[in-house]
Amino acid sequence: MSEVISVVKRQGGFQYSVDESNIQSDDDEDIYMSDDGNARTGKMDTGNNDTESGSQIVTPGELVTDDPIWMRGHGTYFLDNMTYSSVAGTVSRVNRLLSVIPLKSRYSPETGDHIVGRIAEVGNKRWRVDIGGKQHAVLMLGSVNLPGGILRRKSESDELQMRSFLKEGDLLNAEVQSLFQDGSASLHTRSLKYGKLRNGMFCQVPSSLIVRAKNHTHNLPGNITVVLGVNGYIWLRKTSQMDITRDAPPGGSTGGGSSTSSGQNSTNGPTGAVSLNPSITRLEEESSWQIYSDENDPSITANIRKTISRYANVIKALAYCEIGITQERIISAYEVSMAYPNVGSLIDRETMESIGNDVLNGEKMRGNAM
Amino acid sequence: MSRLEIYSPEGLRLDGRRWNELRRFECSINTHSHASDGSSYLEQGNNKVITLVKGPKEPTLRSQMDTEKAILKISVNITQFSKFERSKSSHKNERRVLEMQTALIRTFEKNVMLNIYPRTLIDIEVHVLQQDGGIMGSLINGITLALIDAGIAMYDYISGVSIGLYDTTPLLDVNSLEENAMSSVTLGVVGKSEKLSLLLVEDKIPLDRLETVLAIGIAGAHRVRDLMDEELRKHAEKRVANASSK
Amino acid sequence: MVLSVAEKSYLYDSLASQPLIRPDGRLHTQFRPIEIFTDFLPSSNGSSRIIASDGSECIVSIKSKVVDHTVETDLLQVDINIAGERDDSMIVETLTSLLHKVLTSEDGIDVKKLQLTKKYSFKIFVDVLIISTYSYPASLISMGIYCALNSTWLPKIISAFDDLEVAELPTFHDYDLVKLDVKSPLIFVLAIVGDNIFLDPASNESEVANNGLIITWSPQGGKVISPVKTIALNDTFIKGFNPILLKKGIKLVEENASSVAQALETL
């Protein structure tokens, strides 16, 4: 019989106690006043602040270098010729650029990033999209595919009908087209691989765990497709026709590109002749009102739903263990999780740790450890 | 029955400390990762302070937005159970608390590089679970730690400490009994320098004693800075080691 | 929590299906893991901090004061503070009155345990601070209060019980304390989607619930007590439900509440 509730309890402290080494802290130390009024403490400062891995850790106000030759990047500031750190993080010296990478920060968009975002606001000829960054991203009306195809003229009624395309709360995947002066992003969905998301579930992980890669949409065993937004927003859905053909091996030149539009016949013939990427001529044929539909596929089975829940839980387990999230690791974690037939048991802390360990150990054994 | 001696002839205070000793100082960061971008939990003597930093993020109100720099918002929640005697009424809109918030904003707005986060809001939420004197100093320390944990760029640490003046003897890091028995000063010191980001004097202090009080306060704040830095480095090293093993 | 129409539709279909499929795969009786810390506020008589797996956090402090119970009728005061909410907001006021009702009801806290002498009793102040919450926090708060009261120590009285003729206040031992022997009732929140009813709804589940139930359970009698009422967990999917589900919900609580209480007890 499964446990109703798992409780971890500790008495006598606000949180788990810090490391043993903190107990022998010398914070009752006296402050000595020397003649010139400057204080000296009885303890020597720790000299070397390099970590085992060799990267230097700096904290705000710390001098990084006094060499004027460096170009100063993010996380630093300079006074006279001295470069100081403005964040707590690791020093990065790349070519002539000296910067400090903070230990933790919000997602910072870069041009070309494939992200998942949620509409926060509908504005004047634009949408403002929450991508988990310091500011909302902007999606201009002219940067989306309007039903009817590429040659469709933008009309005034489009501006008034913006909510019929995307409204507050809608989830979509998009690409960062460019950045504004202040670092905020401008998005576009001008490809059939981008657009409104449906047939599945959302989950979120810290953006630092998603590595920038060539492809962010992956098909997973069990008929599930995952979209790993670089910003840490993740979408799990039932694999669609388009997902299947996207991953299909390159075949003949003709053949139907797949889409959700009803008029188009998508051929998945025995030769597997399909087009890999919808070409620009396809866009006008395939853009239809369905791309902005809120309706899910009615044939999502209970099995698909359970599989999606399982994937969501293993992704959360990887995030809990602070493991970088890739297609291989998700599949590996999924396979490891099959040892627990009850999907709900995967939310337990110990189980999440065990799955994380198994994934890492599996990699080490296969020689994939980084 | 012994009388309470604020400062005994042997040089001992009520809690056994000497004039230049700080109270027990323990801090940790990243305590509330789900609910914030940066967080800290700080115990300074019997002061227990939780600080949450949310941001830089999209401002909730358009009117709050500044196109040139980030807006800094600080809200201090002094709980009704923070002192030994439970407070009858909530401190939410109390003038003293509003003044504390303003003073804290002034303390940090020149130190945090607000101009590199235009059009955003940095929302700082502080909860005082328990207080026993020198609370303003603890608030400053908690906020410094949480801002650094959030990865928000700043010029340097700001460390807070209080100094009481018992007749002619300065007493570093006063507790509430001492605070009620004498005049005290709170300092917000920038990093390892002698620059002050905050000088808070709400009681009468003889001017000729001020310099000594400031000197001991600055030294004490430097020590606090070192303690905060030590914890931050330890945390950073653990994180980097953790990340590199994956 | 903001969700898209497609997301809500997917969640609703999953939760309304037979048997129900929860987004994190939990059983309809399964709670999410929680962490509890107690005894960390020396200036309070009792304290607890409870953290749920979605990051919701609630801190409870218990403080006491000696009062004349012939004058003071209410020996239990509850104060709730939700970070970011005004004190006069609806959520704060409804939660405060709910918790007060639960604690002061007949099957709630036994105020006889607070009595010191013929004239005086302890008055208990329950202060709740919610640092963050992503769904209706009544259950989390009640568990926090349960653990805080369970670890509350009050001063030990050394003066006489019969003090009707005496003018002085009771006197107490210099350092000995007595553990407060009361058990707070627990509040359970249930969600109803279609013909399904389940415990501990997460924030995304609450967003698509057709209705919600608050069912209170007393560890004293090991039974469901009042208040039992419906609550709206969102404002878009609300509709009526079959009363059979009310019976089902009460049964779910009766079957699982004692394991929850037991889990909160164990150290």
Automatic annotation (TrEMBL), chain A:
<dbReference type="GO" id="GO:0000785">
    <property type="term" value="C:chromatin"/>
</dbReference>
<feature type="region of interest" description="Disordered">
    <location>
        <begin position="25"/>
        <end position="60"/>
    </location>
</feature>
<dbReference type="GO" id="GO:0071038">
    <property type="term" value="P:TRAMP-dependent tRNA surveillance pathway"/>
</dbReference>
<dbReference type="GO" id="GO:0000176">
    <property type="term" value="C:nuclear exosome (RNase complex)"/>
</dbReference>
<dbReference type="InterPro" id="IPR036612">
    <property type="entry name" value="KH_dom_type_1_sf"/>
</dbReference>
<dbReference type="GO" id="GO:0034475">
    <property type="term" value="P:U4 snRNA 3'-end processing"/>
</dbReference>
<feature type="region of interest" description="Disordered">
    <location>
        <begin position="244"/>
        <end position="277"/>
    </location>
</feature>
<feature type="domain" description="Exosome complex component N-terminal">
    <location>
        <begin position="57"/>
        <end position="94"/>
    </location>
</feature>
<keyword id="KW-0539">Nucleus</keyword>
<protein>
    <submittedName>
        <fullName>Uncharacterized protein</fullName>
    </submittedName>
</protein>
<dbReference type="InterPro" id="IPR025721">
    <property type="entry name" value="Exosome_cplx_N_dom"/>
</dbReference>
<keyword id="KW-0698">rRNA processing</keyword>
<dbReference type="GO" id="GO:0071051">
    <property type="term" value="P:poly(A)-dependent snoRNA 3'-end processing"/>
</dbReference>
<dbReference type="GO" id="GO:0003723">
    <property type="term" value="F:RNA binding"/>
</dbReference>
<dbReference type="GO" id="GO:0000177">
    <property type="term" value="C:cytoplasmic exosome (RNase complex)"/>
</dbReference>
Automatic annotation (TrEMBL), chain B:
<dbReference type="GO" id="GO:0071038">
    <property type="term" value="P:TRAMP-dependent tRNA surveillance pathway"/>
</dbReference>
<dbReference type="GO" id="GO:0000785">
    <property type="term" value="C:chromatin"/>
</dbReference>
<dbReference type="InterPro" id="IPR050080">
    <property type="entry name" value="RNase_PH"/>
</dbReference>
<dbReference type="GO" id="GO:0016075">
    <property type="term" value="P:rRNA catabolic process"/>
</dbReference>
<protein>
    <recommendedName>
        <fullName>Ribosomal RNA-processing protein 41</fullName>
    </recommendedName>
</protein>
<feature type="domain" description="Exoribonuclease phosphorolytic">
    <location>
        <begin position="156"/>
        <end position="219"/>
    </location>
</feature>
<dbReference type="InterPro" id="IPR015847">
    <property type="entry name" value="ExoRNase_PH_dom2"/>
</dbReference>
<dbReference type="GO" id="GO:0071051">
    <property type="term" value="P:poly(A)-dependent snoRNA 3'-end processing"/>
</dbReference>
<comment type="similarity">
    <text>Belongs to the RNase PH family.</text>
</comment>
<dbReference type="GO" id="GO:0000467">
    <property type="term" value="P:exonucleolytic trimming to generate mature 3'-end of 5.8S rRNA from tricistronic rRNA transcript (SSU-rRNA, 5.8S rRNA, LSU-rRNA)"/>
</dbReference>
<dbReference type="GO" id="GO:0034476">
    <property type="term" value="P:U5 snRNA 3'-end processing"/>
</dbReference>
<dbReference type="GO" id="GO:0005730">
    <property type="term" value="C:nucleolus"/>
</dbReference>
<dbReference type="InterPro" id="IPR036345">
    <property type="entry name" value="ExoRNase_PH_dom2_sf"/>
</dbReference>
<keyword id="KW-0963">Cytoplasm</keyword>
<dbReference type="Pfam" id="PF03725">
    <property type="entry name" value="RNase_PH_C"/>
</dbReference>
UniProtKB/TrEMBL annotation, chain C:
<dbReference type="InterPro" id="IPR027408">
    <property type="entry name" value="PNPase/RNase_PH_dom_sf"/>
</dbReference>
<dbReference type="GO" id="GO:0016075">
    <property type="term" value="P:rRNA catabolic process"/>
</dbReference>
<dbReference type="GO" id="GO:0034476">
    <property type="term" value="P:U5 snRNA 3'-end processing"/>
</dbReference>
<dbReference type="GO" id="GO:0034475">
    <property type="term" value="P:U4 snRNA 3'-end processing"/>
</dbReference>
<dbReference type="GO" id="GO:0000467">
    <property type="term" value="P:exonucleolytic trimming to generate mature 3'-end of 5.8S rRNA from tricistronic rRNA transcript (SSU-rRNA, 5.8S rRNA, LSU-rRNA)"/>
</dbReference>
<dbReference type="GO" id="GO:0005730">
    <property type="term" value="C:nucleolus"/>
</dbReference>
<dbReference type="GO" id="GO:0071035">
    <property type="term" value="P:nuclear polyadenylation-dependent rRNA catabolic process"/>
</dbReference>
<dbReference type="InterPro" id="IPR050590">
    <property type="entry name" value="Exosome_comp_Rrp42_subfam"/>
</dbReference>
<protein>
    <recommendedName>
        <fullName>Ribosomal RNA-processing protein 42</fullName>
    </recommendedName>
</protein>
<dbReference type="GO" id="GO:0034473">
    <property type="term" value="P:U1 snRNA 3'-end processing"/>
</dbReference>
<keyword id="KW-0963">Cytoplasm</keyword>
<dbReference type="GO" id="GO:0000176">
    <property type="term" value="C:nuclear exosome (RNase complex)"/>
</dbReference>
<comment type="similarity">
    <text>Belongs to the RNase PH family.</text>
</comment>
<dbReference type="InterPro" id="IPR020568">
    <property type="entry name" value="Ribosomal_Su5_D2-typ_SF"/>
</dbReference>
<dbReference type="GO" id="GO:0071028">
    <property type="term" value="P:nuclear mRNA surveillance"/>
</dbReference>
